[in-house]
Amino acid sequence: DAARAVHLYEESLVHWRELGDLPGIALALGNLGEACDHLGDFTRAEPLYTECLEISRQVGDRQGIAFAMSHLAHLVRKRGENAQAVPLFIESARICQEIGDDARLAEALEGLAGVVVELGAGPDAARLLGLADAIRQQTATPRLAVHQPGYEQDVAVIEATVGADCLTVFIREGTTMSLDRLLARLPDNGDGPDASSESRAAADLTR
Question: What is the full DSSP assignment across 132-145?
Answer without folding.
Answer: HHHHHHHHT-PPPG
